[in-house]
Amino acid sequence: MHPVLVAPSLLACDFGHLHDEIRRAEAAGADWHHLDVMDGHFVDNISFGPAFVEASAAAARIPVDTHLMISRPDHYLGRFTKTSRNITIHVESDCDVSATLRAIRAAGCTCGISLRPGTPFSAIETHLDSVDLVLVMTVEPGFGGQAFQPAMLEKVRSAARLRSQKNLSYRIQVDGGINAETGAQSVAAGADTLVAGTSVFREPDMASAIATLKG
What we know:
- The chain is an alpha/beta fold.
- It contains eight helices and eight strands; from the N terminus they run βαβαβαβαββαβαβαα.
- It has a single domain, classed as TIM Barrel.
- The chain has helices at 18-27, 50-59, 73-76, 97-106, 153-165, 180-189, 198-201, 206-214, and strands at residues 5-8, 33-38, 64-69, 86-90, 110-115, 133-137, 171-175, 193-196.
- Strands 1-8-7-6-5-4-3-2 form an eight-stranded parallel beta sheet.
- The two termini are 15 Å apart.
């Protein structure tokens, strides 16, 4: 339904050379920059906040895709809408999820819904007709470098099946342990947007790694 896009996760880049890393990813063929915002509450880690996203967006020439792994995305939303093309929130967040998704769109961004590995896919089904992207976490959110969980591919298949049945057009994104092998498995299951961190930023030839992910 959609061409395969690759969104390198800036969580895996060298923060000390942020602008250079952004340019390197773009020159290598990245389609989006993916930014994981973690608050230390929703997940057991703290990554970066609005100032980092703003600095990234200032250097970026491609869309910024912001993933809010935070307890109250409704409260902090306004700090990210001016710098992000897409904002994804979690169905497990401590907020009115439907209202927050509407607020993201009202601010001029596209919106996404995500779920943890332990959350059943049925938890997001009521939101499918209100989103532009479904993000299936293929690892437990919070830390980079984790191993891909193959069982999560069934959620990708569910997202693809319901998209077709309901005549919807959302993208299906996967994040966690994505490399050439797991990326191909994800695309075969129905994913069209791949978030990749260490598998692209730590490759000497980033362009080749991204091209491989795109197939």
